[in-house]
Write a structure and sequence with these properties.
Blueprint lengths: L2 E2 L10 H17 L9 H20 L1 H4 L2 E5 L5 E5 L7 E2 L1
Parallel strand pairs: 1-4
Antiparallel strand pairs: 2-3
Helix pairs in contact: 1-2
Length: about 90
């Protein structure tokens, strides 16, 4: 499954939807009332733009994201592996 940024017309299961859900939760926590659910188009444009920007940036910098992995060597210590490349499966 790819990391889906989302579009206003294709919002479900996307990072943009996760951002909207987090916004609703945080709004209610801070303000004590549910976030107004008037026409969501303007805020969804913002959330989609943020999600596309984040995933686009990560996609173009995927080799910079993870450079090494440390793991338990199974005999009481740790070892490190250098990561030569990372490929994110991104759907913008």
């Amino acid at each position: 499954m790819s990391l889906k940024a989302g579009h206003v017309a294709d919002f479900s299961g996307s990072l943009a939807k996760a951002i909207e859900d987090a916004m609703k939760t945080e709004w209610e926590t801070v303000k004590g009332t549910p976030m107004p659910d008037t026409d969501p188009t303007d805020r969804r444009i913002l959330f989609v733009a943020i999600a596309q920007g984040i995933l686009g940036y990560l996609n173009s910098h995927e080799s910079d994201a993870i450079t090494e992995i440390e793991y338990d060597d199974g005999v009481g210590g740790t070892s490190t592996l250098d990561v030569e490349s990372v490929e994110f499966n991104v759907s913008l």
